[in-house]
Amino acid sequence: MFSLIALTFIITAPIAFSATLGDQWDSLKASLSSAEKSSTKDESLTNLQTAKNIYVDNFKNAAISVDAESDILITNAFSNTESILSTGNIEQASLNRQIIDKTIYKIAFMKMQLAITQNNSADFLSWFTVMEKKFKISENYSDINTLSDSIKSNSSLLSVNGPQITEKLLEIFKLKTVEELEEAIAALDKGDLKSAKTFTYEGLYYYRTLHPSIEENIGAESANKLLDKMESTISVTMSDKPIDVMKSEITQISEDVELIIRQYEGGDVSELGLALSGIKDRLNLVQIEYLDAVKDGKIINQEEYDETIVFLTKAIEIFNSNKLAFTELSDPTTESLEKNLADIDVLVSAKGSTDEVVTLVEKSLANITILQEFGGAVEIDILEYFDEIERLLNESKIAYRNGDADMAFDLVTSAYLDNYEFVEGPLGEVDPELVLKIEIDMREKLRNMIKNNESPDKVDAQIDMILVDLAQAKKVIPEFGTIVMLILSVAIISIIGLTAKSRLSIRV
Predict the structure, then answer these.
(1) Residue 334: CB partners within 8 Å, gap ≥ 6?
(2) What number of CA atoms fall less than 13 Å from residue 455's CA on the CB side?
(3) Which InterPro entries does this UniProt record tie to the protein (predicted)?
(4) CB 197 within 8 A of CB 179
(5) What is the CA 484 to chain-centroid distance, rounded?
(6) pLDDT tens across 28-58, in order?
(7) H-type helices in 431-487, by residue range?
(8) Cα(86)–Cα(93) distance, rounded to whole angstroms?
(9) Residues 152-190: pLDDT tens digits?
């Protein structure tokens, strides 16, 4: 008997000792899932304790050292899960799992960043296993995999390859932030509130890894605004509002989020620039999801396949809404992009070759790059934005009095997103209180009044108040002269004569 026990130990010990942090994360996640599925309360709490022990043994100290807030979030989520499992609230336990699971990504990412500064390749690669396990790096991201393999072979490459890896990982977290909101909208469109809640939780806690980079690149104000947006999506899906109202609000939040992300990327934030970036992101998601969805002509993961359809459909919708403007940039490139999108659609519908889909996605991305290159530095008088805001607000008055609340809402949205966003920075330098007042009065109060069907008199009064504040802003803003920005050559037309369509034309 003793020899059998000894033999068992010899066989199993190396497995336990070789477990990576990625393996530990995977075990923690599996234990949390088992806690939700257990048939008895005792079994459920036992699985939860297993998950908690894994966190304490492998991740807690790291969390405390790099981001104490993450440890607080996870500790509170464990405590809350223990309470609600006792009452059988499985849905909330599942949402808490998203908090724990995805907050560990942030811990791992920050430990990787710290390892780079300390030139500790072993630590970097150890924490990288969490990313490898989660995102299947070796299968789905050959560029990142090659960089990490080089570090394994030559630790001195950490200083060069490490920052490249973390930048590419941030791109994944950026895509995930956009992806989860898109999926929440699609779920609400189907009446699936439970999934929508999960997607909004996932979106927020994916974003937390990206947040420090947003703050570093475009400032704390924008980063916190984006964080507030992501948190508000959870408030929306956890409310008792009708699902169609939830969908409308999440759609608007998604548009606001994408605008800030494009600013973070440093790309073109004109209407066409945002449209091209929107197509690009969704095609990248199509490629990622489809690789995990289909094999040998069969669906192997229905959820990933459904998500592929969502992202492809949205990419095509954005293209169709902006096709005429794209054609003005380059007719042949637009035709090529249209054909590639159609071919991808045919392949995905037929569960076709993943290699062919990847090739077509890459061709489409090349088309987008060409279209994006048809741009240049254009000087725009900042007062033109104020004139356009005033025009749109006055038109929204007319539309609302004529009973077209949707048109009025879109006009106000265009006034804010397509114009006011560009003057907030310069105006904020002169009068931060005024810039915030106008933003809240227009983006929140006025749009809510329209959505809530307030009387035309009240809407007129709100607009008139905003117009007075805009007049005051125009008096202090001229000292900033012109704004120089990169925009697509034909997009300047939209500043003078914007239509009432919504920002990006990406609404479902």
Answers:
(1) 323, 326, 327, 367, 371
(2) 3
(3) PEFG-CTERM
(4) no
(5) 27
(6) 999 999 999 998 999 999 999 999 999 999 9
(7) 432-439, 447-451, 456-476
(8) 10
(9) 999 999 999 999 999 999 999 999 999 999 999 999 999
Question: Which among 347, 381, 415 has a CA at the least distance from the CA of 483?
Answer: 381
Q: How far apart are CA 145 and CA 90, in angstroms?
A: 37
At 218 the three-state DSSP class reads helix
Q: pTM of whole model > 0.70?
A: no
Q: Do the Cβ atoms of 178 and 200 come closer than 8 Å?
A: no
Residues with Cβ within 8 Å of residue 490, at least 6 apart in sequence: 272, 325, 328, 329
CA atoms within 13 A on the CB side of 131: 30
- Does residue 483 sit in helix, strand or coil? strand
Whose tokens are 């012109």? That residue is: 482
Beta bridge partners of 376: 487
Q: Are 284 and 308 in contact (CB under 8 A)?
A: no
Which of 176, 142, 144, 63 is closest to 109 using CA atoms? 63
CA distances from 93 to 25, 206, 231 (A): 18, 18, 18
Q: Coil, strand, or helix at residue 380?
A: strand
Quick one: tokens of 97? 């799992």
Q: Which residue has the higher pLDDT, 495 or 236?
A: 236
Q: CA-to-CA distance for 63 and 110, rounded, in angstroms? A: 9
Q: Supply the DSSP symbol for 503.
A: G
Phi, psi angle pair for 375, to nearest 5°: -140, 175
Tokens 């996932």 sit on residue = 202
Q: How many helices (H) and strands (E) does the chain have?
A: 24, 4
Q: Distances from the Cα of 455 to the Cαs of 413, 463, 489, 500, in angstroms? A: 19, 13, 41, 22
Residue found under tokens 């995102």: 135
Q: Return all residues near 351 (Cβ < 8 A) that are at least 6 apart.
A: 294, 297, 298, 299
How far is it, in rounded angstroms, from Cα 364 to Cα 371? 11
